[in-house]
Specification:
Blueprint: E1 2-11, E2 14-21, H1 22-26, E3 30-34, H2 41-53, E4 80-87, E5 90-97, E6 100-103, E7 110-113, E8 116-123, E9 128-133, H3 136-147, H4 151-157, E10 159-161, H5 162-170, H6 173-184, H7 187-225, H8 241-306, H9 308-324, H10 328-353, H11 364-379, H12 382-420, H13 422-500, H14 502-507, H15 537-575, H16 580-601, H17 604-657, H18 663-708, H19 713-719, H20 723-747, H21 750-757, H22 763-826, H23 838-861, E11 866-871, E12 883-888, E13 893-896, H24 902-923, E14 931-935, H25 943-955, E15 962-966, H26 970-975, E16 978-983, E17 990-994
Parallel strand pairs: 3-15, 3-16, 10-14, 14-15
Antiparallel strand pairs: 1-2, 1-4, 4-5, 5-8, 6-7, 8-9, 11-12, 12-13, 16-17
Length: 1007
């Protein structure tokens, strides 16, 4: 990596734009960065780091964002840093702008703009720059990938802070470990330690979980086995737990199987006893059943004997019913004929009652002839009925004609009255339209004058208000201006007083044996003293803050005053000198006139609509008058035709209706009479036929009863049974016959008769004996089932425990292996003799490489006296691996680096820093670091040592490197020709550059 150019604007102490040409400074190999304290030397290095990583180094990281901006910068100047460099063969330009608070473009106050970044690459072929990215994240990732270093590594390798390495030499192992861990990023090794510990804990938890499950199975086996099993007195994770549990389970299974064999034998004996008791019970039950069966048969035979008379009566009744069944068809036929004749006679009587008296004695044939004559008379009235309907239509048509004539007369009368006033109505409507049109034109003219009057009135009122506000704003701005001038003068006085006594302020921090921050000397014979009334930094900053606040208040008051003046001028230009009251009266008068004109103009549309409707009504009424006149003329002939047709029809109908009111009434009378005659003739004929059928049915019934053996048809009818009674009687006879057969069968059974001769059976005693035997069998079966379940559960639990032990075997081996590795990497294992952690072991290897690289330069700086060596000895009770000693060739002894003097500590730390830069560079993938910076510490060296240190630094040019030295030592200004001077002033710091000249003369640079 080689730096080419750095451009700063409003960054840190630099209020204006400044440029640094590193190509010119690097031509000499070594260049000097110097300037007074507080001028901004470190800010140049901060700018390089900020351009690359977007943040500043170390403890200055708090100065991010808004605080990176220079207090000397103009309000409108934005902070910006641009760095041009070559890395990995690519020439890049990085530009960064931190967030800044700028004045608002509109209105007062400030607003915060976001940070911005640009990354460009120079195209050598095209000879132009091309944009790569404007994303903060993408640019940061690209720079970090190209450099191969984080910001912390860059600040330690490129910006070599000697104070940090001096502390590194004197630090303990823990402090060295933290610094080396940041530089070499050994977090992955610490992560390995952490992962191993987590894995050990996880496997240990899984082993304990498996042991807990095994113990749980053992407890369940103990619950199942009872006293036959004793649990081992071991906890989860204890060695030998699995073997003890399996042994106890084997003993419990053996004992349970013995108990199962004993229970099986007891069950076999109980089953034999229970079978014998059941057989005895069945024999007693069978004897008891046969004895009851014989006794029941004797009782049933006695009952049958008692009911023998009833059985004979039922048999006789059944015999008469079978004979009467042959007469039943004749009886049913006679009953049907009688019912039919009764119904026909009733219908004939009802139909004859509806006829006139002259037909009371007529037979069926006479009634039919009368119906035919009535129908012939009805047919002759059909023509008269059509004429009567036509006459009714003529009457209705004549009434409609008269109604329409009256309607037309009303229309003509109303139309003539309306048309008489038409001319006056039309003239009035046209006058209203003309008046409304004039009002609309007047309203449009008044509306054009309304808005200017309102604007003038509003401007006049604003003019009156601002006239009084202007004086107050002027007084306020004048007072704040005087306060701002007073505050600034006070701040400048205090700043001048502080600068005059700055030596005393710096001297207050001096400690004997500690190098001076200005000259580097470790002895301070005559430090400056503070005078009475000394101004410190806090007092100056308070005065500066008060001055800035006063200036801000004055600027705000000036802006408010300018705004009042601008507004007042605009209001006066709009309103003029006319008084506000007069303008208000004119505006009021204009509004009232406009309102009146609008009201009058609003009648225009209604008047036009009313005129249009009146003209349409005139046309409609005129057309209706003409149509009514035409209809009146056509109705005269129509009325005459209707009168002639009506007279002819009335003469014809008078002859046809006779004594009836109308032809329709006469026809209705004849239709009703014909229907009644026809119905009476039909019902009379049906009644005569049903009487003949009834007489024939009576004869057939008498003959059937005589042949069946009955004296009269009534006796045969009484002997008949309905279906329900017949079935009930047959059922009783069949039941009597079945009962007799069953009783005879039982009384003839040999085993039943033999059982009846024996003594009565004792069923209760037999059942009690059988129940006792069954209970003993159930008890034995329960004992056997419990023993079998116990054996099965123990077998299942034992198998599960064995499977668990087999599964835990690999897990236990893994836990032992991981536990050994975790203890070894954590430094707690007995195998780790030096108690060194894995991360410390890796850092010790890196420290050994750094010590070897640093020794090459340290021997040249110390004229071959000192050598840095790495030590992995333990310090007290702590852990080993990060010790650092120096070997003194003059004494041949090895001692701690904390015993070096101030100058020796400086060049030892410088050698260590350069060696670390080489190692980190190789670690970063071999990225070349062509530009390095070394910060302070040269004041503690004598002339000879200084020459040797400069020779070592000068030798870096052999590797095509350039080294920038940041120092106050005056002797370095004579020895180093290429210089970058930072000059501070009241308006901010400036840079002056002096380039390298081969002739040895110093060149003058630009500010």
């Amino acid at each position: 990596m080689r730096l080419h150019r750095l451009d700063l604007t409003a960054f840190g102490p630099f209020g204006d734009s400044q440029s640094v040409d590193f190509d010119e400074l690097s031509a000499a190999g070594i260049f000097l960065l110097h300037g007074p304290t507080g001028a901004g030397k470190t800010s140049v290095l901060d700018a390089v780091c900020y351009a690359l990583y977007g943040s500043v180094p170390g403890a200055r990281q708090g100065g991010q964002g808004l605080t990176l901006r220079s207090d000397h910068a103009a309000p409108g100047t934005r902070t910006e840093v641009t760095l041009e460099l070559t890395v990995a063969g690519r020439r890049l330009e990085v530009t960064r702008q931190p967030p800044w608070e700028r004045p608002k473009k509109r209105g007062t106050g400030t607003t915060v703009e976001k940070a911005q970044s640009w990354l460009r690459e120079h195209d050598a072929v095209a000879g132009a720059w091309k944009d790569l990215s404007r994303s903060h994240q993408e640019i940061g990732e690209e720079i970090t990938q190209l450099l191969g270093m984080s910001r912390e590594q860059f600040c330690q390798v490129v910006l070599l802070p000697q104070g940090d390495f001096a502390r590194f030499l004197r630090a303990d192992a823990e402090a060295r470990g933290r610094l080396l861990g940041r530089l070499f990023d050994t977090r992955r090794f610490a992560e390995v330690e952490k992962r191993l510990v987590e894995r050990r804990r996880a496997t240990e938890a899984r082993v304990r979980e498996g042991d807990s499950a095994l113990l749980a199975d053992a407890h369940r086996m103990q619950q199942v086995a009872g006293d036959a099993m004793e649990l081992p007195d071991l906890a989860p994770g204890d060695p030998g737990l699995a073997e003890a549990v399996l042994a106890a389970a084997a003993v419990a299974r053996s004992t349970s199987r013995e108990l199962l064999t004993t229970a099986h034998c007891g069950r076999l004996a109980a089953e034999s006893a229970q079978a014998a008791a059941e057989r005895a019970l069945e024999e007693v039950r069978e004897r008891a059943r046969l004895q009851r069966r014989f006794a029941d048969a004797r009782e049933r035979a006695a009952v049958l004997e008692e009911r023998a008379g009833e059985h004979r009566d039922a048999q006789t009744r059944m015999e008469r019913a079978r004979k009467a069944e042959s007469v039943a068809p004749a009886l049913e036929l006679r009953e049907a004929a009688d019912a039919e004749h009764t119904r026909a006679s009733a219908r004939a009587a009802r139909a004859r009652d509806l006829l006139p008296r002259r037909f009371a004695d007529a037979g069926a044939a006479g009634l039919a002839a009368a119906a035919r004559r009535t129908a012939e008379e009805l047919g002759g009235l059909e023509s008269a009925r059509r004429g009567e309907r036509r006459l009714a239509g003529l009457v209705a048509e004549r009434a409609d004609l008269d109604r329409r004539e009256r309607d037309d007369e009303d229309v003509l009368t109303e139309t003539e009255a309306w048309l008489a006033d038409w001319d006056a109505v039309r003239a009035g409507l046209r006058a209203r339209i003309e008046a409304a049109q004039e009002a609309a034109a007047r309203a449009e003219q008044l509306d054009g004058r309304r808005e200017p009057l309102q604007r003038r009135l509003k401007a006049a009122r604003l003019r009156d208000e601002l006239a009084s506000d202007l004086e107050a704003a002027q007084r306020k701005a004048l007072a704040s201006g005087e306060q701002a001038l007073t505050a600034r003068a006070q701040w400048l006085d205090l700043r001048e007083q502080r600068l005059n006594g700055i030596a005393a302020e710096l001297a207050a921090t001096l400690v004997d044996g500690t190098p001076c921050a200005v000259c580097g000397a470790t002895e301070h014979p005559a430090p400056a003293r503070r005078d009475a009334g000394h101004v410190d930094r806090e007092a100056e900053e308070r005065a500066l803050t008060a001055s800035r606040r006063a200036e801000e208040r004055h600027a705000q008051d000036e802006r408010e005053l300018g705004l009042v003046r601008e507004t007042l001028a605009a209001a006066t230009a709009e309103a003029g000198d006319t008084p506000t009251d007069r303008l208000a009266a004119e505006a009021q008068e204009g509004e009232e006139g406009y309102a009146r004109a609008r009201r009058e103009a609003s009648a225009l549309h209604p008047a036009r609509e009313e005129l249009r409707q009146a003209e349409q009504e005139h046309e409609r009424r005129t057309a209706a008058q003409r149509e009514a006149a035409v209809r009146t003329a056509s109705r005269v002939g129509h009325r005459e035709r209707l009168e002639r047709e009506r007279a002819a029809l009335e003469e014809e109908l008078t002859q046809a209706r006779g004594s009836a009111e109308s032809v329709a009434a006469r026809a209705a009378e004849l239709e009703g009479l014909a229907a009644r005659l026809t119905d009476a003739a039909d019902t009379a004929r049906v009644a005569e036929e049903s009487a003949e059928r009834l007489k024939a049915a009576d004869g057939r019934l008498d003959e059937a009863a005589f042949r069946a053996g009955f004296d009269t048809p009534r006796a045969a009818a009484d002997a008949l049974l309905d279906d329900t009674a017949h079935r009930e009687l047959q059922r009783r006879l069949d039941a009597r016959q079945s009962e007799e057969a069953a009783v005879r069968s039982v009384l003839a059974e040999a085993d039943t008769v033999a059982a009846a001769r024996q003594r009565p059976a004792d069923l209760a005693a037999a059942e009690q004996s059988a129940a006792a035997a069954a209970e003993r069998l159930r008890t034995a079966a329960s004992v056997q089932d419990a023993a079998a379940r116990r054996c099965a559960e123990l077998d299942q639990l034992s198998a599960r425990a064995s499977d668990g032990v087999r599964r835990l075997g690999p897990l236990r081996e893994e836990y032992d292996r991981v536990a050994r590795l975790a203890g070894l990497t954590a430094g707690t294992s007995a195998d780790n003799e030096r108690k060194m952690r894995l991360e410390a072991y890796v850092l010790a290897a890196r420290l050994e490489q750094v010590a070897a690289a640093a020794t090459v330069r340290l021997q040249r700086m110390s004229s071959g006296r000192y050598t840095l060596v790495h030590s992995d000895d333990r310090a007290g009770r702590g852990r080993s691996g990060l010790g650092l000693h120096v070997v003194d060739a003059w004494t041949g002894r090895e001692r701690d680096t904390a015993t070096l003097s101030g100058g020796e500590t400086f060049f030892a730390s410088l050698a260590l820093a350069l060696g670390l830069a080489d190692v980190v560079t190789d670690e970063a993938g071999g990225v070349r670091l062509d530009t390095l910076f070394i910060d302070e510490g040269f004041g503690s060296l004598d002339d000879q040592t200084l020459d040797e240190v400069l020779d070592v630094l000068d030798s870096l040019r052999e590797r095509d490197r350039s080294v920038g030295i940041v120092s106050h030592v005056a002797d370095l200004r004579r020895r180093i020709h290429a210089q970058l001077e930072v000059v501070k002033g009241r308006s901010g710091s400036l840079v002056r550059q002096r380039g390298y000249r081969p002739s040895g003369r110093l060149g003058s640079g630009d500010e």
